[in-house]
Amino acid sequence: SQSLNLQMFNRDARQAEVLLSQQEHVLSKDETVVNLEQAENLIKRHEAFLTTMEANDDKINAVVQFAGRLCDEGHFAADKVNKKADNINERRNSNRDRALQQMERLKDQLQLHQFLQDCEELSEWVQEKKFTAQDETYRSAKTVHSKWTRHQAFEAEIASNKDRLVRVKQSGEELMKEKPELAELIQPKISDLEQQFDDLEHTTKDKGERLFDANREVLIHQTCDDIDSWMNDLEKQIESEDTGSDLASVNILMQKQQMIETQMAVKAKQVTELETQAEYLQRTVPEKMDDIKAKKKVVEERFEQLKAPLIERQRQLEKKKEAFQFRRDVEDEKLWIAEKVPLAESTDYGNSLFNVHTLKKKNQSLATEIDNHEPRINAVCNNGQKLIQEGHEDSPQFTDLIGDLMQRWQHLKEAVDHRRNLLDQSERAQQYFFDANEAESWMSEQELYMMVEDRGKDEISAQNLMKKTRIP
Description:
CATH topology of the largest domain: Methane Monooxygenase Hydroxylase, Chain G, domain 1
Helix content: over 70%
Shape: flat
Distance between the termini: 73 Å
Order of helices and strands: HHHHHHHHHHHH
Structural class: mainly alpha
Radius of gyration: 45 Å
CATH architecture of the largest domain: Up-down Bundle
């Protein structure tokens, strides 16, 4: 028996050693990571390797445990078995430590190459924008004002992308803090990116000055004309009496209103910019400032006068939407009630006790559903009352809608209560029929005993027969 156990141990130990040798072979490969994609692929492959190692642990543990049992039983080759088991266990632990360390190195490489790729992408973006900034003109723009508008949009794009530089810098600083040995690689990348971004900002600023300093007077006139033309179109839209004929059309108009407000924000910035342009011209062409100031004042006053009508139109659209939404909500609730009424007014009260119990559960579920839905009904009615209190022109109609909805709602609740009472009555009746059937069955059974002619052969059997025929 001990010889057989030794053979079994040696067989299992050889299999474990093969597994460990395979693991050591994989761990001996130290691939150099050259890019982000390779780092991601190596991590996925190493995760799969760790999963396989964990699965093979059961086989190795079985060998170690088997060796321990043989030693405890005083096996004749206990020293040899124990030595081999210790060697297997040490190799397994060594492989596990190496695998975990390798995973940490791969994760470090992933972070590093993510940082390097972010640097490269941002650098490419900066170079592309710098090429645009070095172009002396916006060729597709026909007027000084349109060129100025393009230039402002370009400056805004650069400003909005500065967050990318901040994020890359933070990522690099965190890496250097965790891995100081990477500082020689990371710090120059950060410094180079910061320098590139500074150059881009200065190039853009210089371009603006070159393009527009000599044309400030033309620019302010064209900007005033552009804003003035835009305001003419806007006034026509504001004067329109179209506030929508249904919920869908009101929503479309509100979307247009939102677009107008977005445009207003853009134009407001341009109006503010007029002051900066005027200050520059005051120093360069003071003799022309009376005409410029007059034109600028007209634009600024018209722009301010547009704000109140826009707010009023927004209020009218919101009021119209609330009314259409209320009507839609009332119709939706009426449909919901109409779906439940046939269930509440059903004349099926059950033809058996089991059937009645099933119907009672369904009616209780309906009652619960109605209770849970009541806050929605109240919310719809409250919205209607709010419109009435605000003096909406359709207040009489809203009053009728609320009254009709509440009447339907009350009818549904009463129908459910009435059905509950009728089902209770049906339950009592079916319980009576059930009990009566039970009694009839019992009496039929007793009649069979009464019809037996056996009177008993002795006193004991007679007493037993008397017990059977006795009514409980």
